[in-house]
Prior knowledge:
Elements: E1 10-13, E2 21-24, H1 26-29, H2 32-49, E3 54-59, H3 62-74, E4 78-83, E5 91-97, E6 102-108, H4 109-112, E7 117-125, H5 129-139, E8 144-153, H6 158-162, H7 165-168, E9 172-174
Parallel strand pairs: 3-4, 3-7, 7-8, 8-9
Antiparallel strand pairs: 1-2, 4-6, 5-6
Helix pairs in contact: 2-3
Amino acid sequence: MKKIEDYGLRIVKDYPKQGVNFIDINGLLADGEKYKKVINAFARGANKVKQADSAIITPEARGFLFASSVAHKTGLPLVVIRKKGKIPSHPYRFQIQNEYDSYEMEVDSDILKKFDNYIYIDDILATGQTLADVSKALKKKNKKICFALHLTAVEGLNGMRQENSVLQSIPHKEII
């Protein structure tokens, strides 16, 4: 099994705050061949689960770097989740609580109505709270995440993810 370092990822300790070990993806993005392999792996995963009424959904900002390329490669529609104040038309707002921050996110409610099933794509699966909060927000609109794809997961937080009942109902895969 390859290590995250083999893909140009590195861990930055105590960033963005004390006690958080941040996974920096810049080395991967700066290596065209490795980035291409990762996008191809994401696309294979998305193609296995896509349905007629599905779209990719992704939170800003780093998720955009993977999801937009996967949407292009698979032909799936892309729905973006932005921070409050960034969706100009009919924003549907909801709260996100992750391991070091809490903020409001929003998605275009008119676009959200078009699809029932979503393939969630993001970079790092840490506590899983962002995924869980997006899933809960979609559920309120009778939408669901049918599959989640992440670049990698923080191994040390696996126990925390296993305790989250929302995450247990979402099939998922990590590329690395």
